[in-house]
Amino acid sequence: MLGRLAKYLRMLGFDTKYEKEIKDEELLREAKDEDRIVITRDTHLVKRKDAVGICILLTKNDVKSQLIELNNAIPVFAKAAPFTRCSVCNTLLVPITKEQAEKNVPPYVFKTQNQFSYCPACDKVYWPATHIAKLTAFFKEILQKE
């Protein structure tokens, strides 16, 4: 399963669709219809004739190694727009004012933060706290290992 990878790709700003349960035929049809790349660990899937050109096979288990593998296959980091999508539902985030965020964030966050983004699909509010610095360092570390 590549659920963690999907979440990280969303954090990097990529339109990332992830379904736990989907038949190969449906997955490949959707990928073609929606002009998507299929990222998989399924060796049987990538060997199918109808998968040629739209599948990338990953062999690693951990998300850091998977991101390195993916970036080596297609340079995703060059096209990244970090923290512009909801990591939960993939929707583009919308900037909101501090006042608009007040009712949806803890009091300490409201006092200490000035920038907020909102997911109109799942009603989640994001702000640039310490996790942004940690994730940015994580992504930079991956780039150095290419």
Care to give the gist of this entry?
With 146 residues, this protein is mainly alpha-helical.
What does this structure look like?
The chain has about 150 residues and is mostly helical. The protein has a domain at about 1-85. The chain is about 40% helix and about 10% strand. The chain has seven helices and five strands. The chain has helices spanning about 5-10, 25-35, 45, 65-75, 100, 105-110, 130-145, and strands at about 40, 55, 95, 115-120, 125. The strands form two sheets. It has a three-stranded antiparallel β-sheet with strand order 3-4-5. Strand 1 (about 40), helix 3 (about 45) and strand 2 (about 55) form a beta-alpha-beta unit. The longest helix is centred in the last third of the chain and has 15 residues, at about 130-145.
